[in-house]
Amino acid sequence: MKINQLIVYGLLVFTAVSCKKEEVENPSEIMSTNDINSHLYREVEKQGVYNWSTASDELLWSAGMQSDSIFAIGYQPESFVDINSKMHTLNIESSEWIQVRDEILEFILIEEQKLNPNKTIEDLLPFGYPTVVPSMAIYLTSFEAVQKLRTMGTIRYFEPMGYELPPLNANTSDRSSSGCGGSPDYGLNPLDYETIVPGIKQSWHHGTSNISSAWGSATGDDVTIAIIDTGISDDQDNLNGNFNSGYSSGRTVEQISTHYTGRWWWRSLEAPHDQCGHGTEMAGLAAAPRSTDGNAVGVAYNCDLIGFRAVSDVFISSSNEKNGVKDALIIAGGRADVKVISMSLGTPFYSGTVADGIYYAYGSGKSIFSAAGTSFAWTSGFGVIFPASMSQTIAVTGVKEGETESCDVCHDGSAVDFTMIMERSADADRHALTLATFADQSTYVGGSSCATASVAGIAALVYSNNPGITRDEVYDRLKENASNYPVADGDHGWGVIDANAAVGD
After folding, report:
1. Which of 39, 175, 371, 399 is 20 to 30 A from 447 (CA-CA)?
2. CB burial string 148-177: b at 16+ within 10 A, e below
3. Is residue 21 part of a domain?
């Protein structure tokens, strides 16, 4: 988040909290953001990914009140077991589930009406009633309600949805830019690509995973990759009207938005157009056409593509973004044509809302690739971030030439499954080539984001050449044809994949 955005956000928070203190009487004082942040940084350093289930009632409630007062509630019938593996089979419109949902809502309404008698059920539900997975976003201000809800057997998780952890030093220049970019690079080093027929640039990093040879067997036909990110730029023709051109044909590209902007009656679903650049870059790495315009080609240049606008940048932070990622996962998980989901985004906070979407898509058989984390100084100690930290995702990070060293801003750790070489060892500014946000221009992009989208493209090649193959069989092919097999490395997992060997004849 840019400094001026932080200042504006801070003023909004101060105004909102001041109003709450005047209107709401609670048995506990709201903790300051400084106290909350100090605690969270200590816990993230110890735990790697922070889970709000370990927070005190006061900390959890204060974090909600210091943001948008929206809390995520996961629920289930009290006797229900093993919900995560059953997420994709649930019918939450059945009487049993509706009863639990309504009992929770009625309890919250009673508690909230003690503070504001005019509150209604509709006032509590900024995103409406849940429809697929048992997860609700609830507007809540009562500290007493928070205390009681956390003791209920029907509550799976209770978390503040909108609290954002700022940089340790908001004035530092050495911090993440939230991944946004996409501007053309007019100074591409000619050693970083090869011009191949019918007149397209192939990034140097393809050669490190033997992708050209893999194209002899598969190019991604009949496989759909879902990129859950910041969307696709309407100005990049190779992801729009030029998606079928050159050696790429007979495929489809869709743009879907699940990202809302604003709050309450100002809340609206945004257009899917990428306003950040990151989603366009990731879509280009995985699926850009093998065209004739001199741009950069993707790994699976004959796959179908869905570009989701679920977030505004690579950090899953706001209530809108967590809800948007969950909805994108549910849509992608429910589509039979989607085999691969690529998520080059994350957060140091565990989110039950996002996790429910992961469980749903995973239960539906999807291969879910997730970035291990990309950062600068202020997040360098965070380790593998969420949701790459989940066992249901396939965590990917980037490494330099030589394979032994992580890229300069790439997270690593025991949760990593695979790596992709995407950074020159002699020049950390020379990364992989992908599509810029407009016209026929290319740009460099790095980090674990780049590695994740590229490996997702390799998985699509495996699916394409092996119809009927399962997710677990795809994973085994990737693993058994990676550089560290049969002994996984503690920071880099199975290592760099040989795409040609993994695809097979």
Report:
1. 39
2. ebeebebbbbbbbbbbbbebeeeeeeebbe
3. yes
